[in-house]
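Hey, quick one: can you model this chain's 3D structure?
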Amino acid sequence: MRKTIHHLLMLPRSIRVRMMSGFALMGVLPMLVSVYVLTNQIAPVRQGVPWMCVMILLSVVLVLAGSHLMRESVWSVINVARTADELLRQAKEGADAREVVRLERLLCYMEDQLAAARRALQVYRDVARRETRSYRLPPLIPGQLVRARLEEELARSRREGSMVTVFAWETAVVSAEEERDETHVPLWLQEVLRKSGAVLDGVGRVRAGYWVGVARGLEAEQVPGVLTTMKRVALTHGIDAAMKVWVSPREEVDVREVMRGIGEERG
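Sure thing. Here's the predicted structure for all 267 residues.
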């Protein structure tokens, strides 16, 4: 069962939907027809219960058999290597050679389709790369100045009563390039910043895997929605990132706490 589910998950969503729709149609329609015929044409409901049970059981068996055959048919096309091995083994035993010709035509068609799919995927990657590059990252704060910048922004917030929001992102997934270069903002964080809807005035790396950002003028009512969006975007990129936000002067923000990290806030 687990292997079957794994195979289904490898299929594109459109094919999975069609297979499940076919399964539902093969199951629902025979049952409805059987129940209708038994209850309205053959006998009253009370007398037709045994026959109804038999027909429903038979419908379930046919549905399962049809689903298995449909799955095997689709998977035989996907796992074409296994199909080719079986067909060539039959051909050696004297089977119809025309089946080998059909297999060659199928392989040529699949090669064309794979090439077209690769081209479409490359176009998507190029467009996504251009969109990422067109997004301008917030000013980068040097690592050794992050603490001083936070203290400066928070002191101004307390003095002037202006709103300052401090964001923090931490993850254990750190690339080698990020380890080497503190100016390298990871792609997942770029996507988080780009799609969050918030305009940050600065972002800096405290240490590899731990980044903080500062935003002035962000309304307190917007902060929860921005944080939720950031978490959702990170998850879509497969990053289990801890995130936290502080809003000054609505709350007292301890710079030492911000610099310490937020590993326990993951998810």
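One thing worth noting: Residues 19 and 70 are 8 Å apart (CA to CA).
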